[in-house]
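Quick note —
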Amino acid sequence: MSDQNVHNAGFTPSGISRGSLASSMMSQEARASGGGVHSGGPTATLQEMGARGSTHSSGFTSSGISSGSQASQMMSQEARSHGGETPRGGTTSTVQSISMGGKGGRH
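Predicted structure written out below.
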């Protein structure tokens, strides 16, 4: 289900779908960063997972982040770099929100 939710948001094997939540996220992220989408950011991470169909296997599931997974490592690293908390709108929270069928926390 999490892979399908990512595809439904517009992150697909053929790229970001025009007019989708994914395109809105990409546009917003590019404007906020001065014109580009950063590697490792929410849009790039979701597009990579959407292209590969690897959201669920990375540990972002419809019921939460799997213990011991790549997703849990990402969450731990992001929390350490933000004083112990995973920030709303950060990569981990955005990917998890989208994988559960949400809108990513910034929209």
